[in-house]
Amino acid sequence: MTDTRTLSITVNGTQYTREIETRRTLADFLRLDLKLTGTHLGCEHGVCGACTVRVEGQAVRSCLMLAVQANGKSVATVEGLARDGNLSPLQNQFWEHHGLQCGFCTPGVLMTMEEFLEENPNPTEADVRDALSGNICRCTGYQSIVDAVLATAAQARGE
Amino acid sequence: MEMRSFGQSIKRKEDPAFLTGKGRYVDDIELPNMAHAAFVRSPLAHARIKSIDTSFARQIKGVIDVITYHELPESLRQRRLPLVVPVESLTNPRLPFTLARDEVCYVGEPIAIVVAENRYIAEDAVAQVMVDLEPLDVIADCRDGLKKGAPLAHVGASSNVAATMHSVSGDTDAAFAKAAHVFKENIYLHRGGAFFMECRGAIAHYDTFQDNLLVYVSSQGVHRLKRSFLELFDMQDSKLRIVTPDVGGGFGPKGSYYVEYGAVAAASMRVGRPVKWIEDRRENFVATHQERDQYWDVEIAVDDDAKILGVRGTLTHDNGAYTPWGIVLPWISVATVPGPYVIPAYNMTLVSVLTNKVPTTPVRGAGRPQAVFVMERLMDRVAREFDLDPAEVRRRNFIKPEQMPYNVGVIFRDGRPVVYDSGDYPACQQTALDAVDYEAFETRRKAALAEGRYIGIGIGNAVEATGLGPYEGVTVRIGTNGNITAYTGATPQGQAHKTTLAQVVADHFGVSIDDVTIETGDTSTISFGIGTFASRTAVNAGSSAHMAAKAVSIKVREIAAQLLEVEPDDIELRDGLARVKGASNRSKTLRELAVYSLGKPGFSLAEGMAPGLENTAYFTPSQSSYANGTCLAEVEVDIETGRVRITRLVMSHDCGRVINPMVVNGQVIGGVAHGVGNALFERMVHDDQAQPLSTNFGEYLLPLAADVPRVEIHHQETPSPYNPLGVKGAGEGGTIPTIAAIVNAVADALRPLGVHIAEAPLSPQRIIELIEEAKARSAA
Ligand code: FES
Ligand code: FES
């Protein structure tokens, strides 16, 4: 039960080495060991998407991944999105379009949509809604999130 | 006063922190030496506790303590949870102990709390607490609870009826006797739970040195929780402080005091360390309050012109195992049925039944969506029987604007008569109809049918009591650094109070909202509070913010006038300065004035002056303000798969004057999404032993981005005469008429197949069943 391993991981560009229990999830590792509490837990069974982070660029549910599985990998969390105190274009559009209310789902939604926009620079509303369907937001009714994502894509295209 | 912020779609002050992962929810708080708790919960819906063996759990390394009823402090062994809203008709109130004593009455009821070095170990230990239970008979369905000879949901109770109440106006017997037509409906309505994304959670920090208790809790209002704590722990006011940090959604159930909170506090007192408990999602499904089942047997009497003569019937409500909120929820239901219509005679009997399930208390909409569904189903039934346009039937029965204020004749749950203050219901519906070109819908339907597609349109009209009293307070204070801060007991869970209340305050001082700080959810900052629910914050806290800010701004002017040797009316407030109008070089900063207002040690204050730039106001509304709305939904139903696609959704809405249109739109759209869930997806399933079967998001479906349509909003603005801002609540208006509109639209789409619908939610399987039943009926 207290089987431990040494974990070496890069999070938001910073390298960390820690001795951790093998049963520690990546989400708990980020929140408890690194104090990066921006990653939230909404279900701990892989459905709500609140815990989404990016591992080697890929959006993953950090509640379903053990921290040791991320050994040697590079992880990005919501804390890494803003640069030098400036919000990222997507964060800015969320602010502009009221894309969040309680903010609890927001980090996971942002990480999911960052990946989506990199792969889909030219999405339709239906594409966005489809890609967003792995994230539950109980506050916004999604519309303002969809608008924020579409506006970010348009902005990136120079429109 | 020059209006600058009020009425503007200003970007939220809250967002930069939330967007960058700097929100601070209760699980993000870490106190030194903190221990972690997990609960042992009942696996059975009704059982007697024979014994509890904690010895195995205690042996696990890292386990600090295991606490059952017997280890609780004396006062918690004597007292059950307090009843928040006692009423006379609640003849059989039932409340739990903090940890079950000898009987458990629903699956999930806490039996013991384990405290350990971390949550992983606490959960390991929960599995090792041996509880010996003797199963008892179970009431799983509220209708079964009323049967003769039914077993009892609580051992020793006289019956399963918690309360019976009659909501009466006019003479229904006479109305029905003379009616040309009477139509009956048996309606089943089920609403699930709130399912906020952040589960509940609390940290209790008992300070052994100072002998006081600090509780951080994810809630909708700290002051009411404090009252429950003080009562249960027999504690003196100065010994307890409750703080609610950022909250990841509330929607009603986070407004309750829960047994877990007291257990966590008791644990902290016993182990002498801070103790954190964060609910996991499975616990959330079994232990957080829900709404669930209502069975309505109703009839409507109409004359030959389809005008309503009377409505009567019975509501059988699934109360669950305990009655922490009394009968608030079903009472709101029966008082909301009349809606925007003239109903000369009304008689609804409410029977609230104890069952062996988690208690039901208000979830966004608070029993109103069900009431609106009932009335709107009846209106559609009348339309069908008369072969009239459903919009026309409603038009004939609307309360007209010239009838305002309108006394409905029934009593609301606050004990006051339901008197609508203002609103133009016919115009509200017309706006929605025009938006979708309603007149042309029959042409669209024919074209679709020709292609084998079943489309339908449905109307939901609602009137909603908002801004419920008794009060909410706001203290406005200008600090000696010149900062304007407002403190309130209202506690946000995403509604943007820190922005909208700042908008109200900022205008009084001629500053931007960035110059105003709003502090919420801390019992140490303001004496009294009620909290955020019932769409009440804009009305109550908004009005208090207005009153307190106004009082402080007057004092600022007076002091500035004194120092600058002019009249107060010659002073204007702008950008942190109090300056003489037309002489902008003669001014004082707010900072200078705040310092001056406190006086100098040993010197006297100016005559008649109280110290400080500070004022506290408690706005106490004389009655609710009534918001209203029309939801119009268009759907397409796939009759092979039963899938419903909402192709269009229009919400025409009147919540009085609007502080921040962007925020209000967000509330309305988010509310609609809850209605979509209730209409088509969300169902809390129990088996016949009241064992919950839908306890994760794979089994209990919440609406996703692809399920919720784009919502078109049309605002009307009829100011409420009952508060200084003219506002009405906006938090629930999106949810309330939406279920009715969507289900009416599905019924309309399937009308060519002879399908009759009197229930929600409608799953695809259920729609196919209804189609099959209709086919069988027409074949017979
Ligand atoms: S917390 Fe990981 S998907 Fe919900
Ligand atoms: S903003 Fe609250 S859950 Fe999405």
Automatic annotation (TrEMBL), chain A:
Gene3D superfamilies: 3.10.20.30, [2Fe-2S]-binding domain. One of its GO terms (molecular function) is 2 iron, 2 sulfur cluster binding. Keywords: 2Fe-2S, Iron, Iron-sulfur, Metal-binding, Oxidoreductase. Residues 5-81 form the 2Fe-2S ferredoxin-type domain. The keyword Iron-sulfur applies. PROSITE patterns: 2FE2S_FER_1, 2FE2S_FER_2. This is (2Fe-2S)-binding protein. It comes from Pelagibacterium lacus.
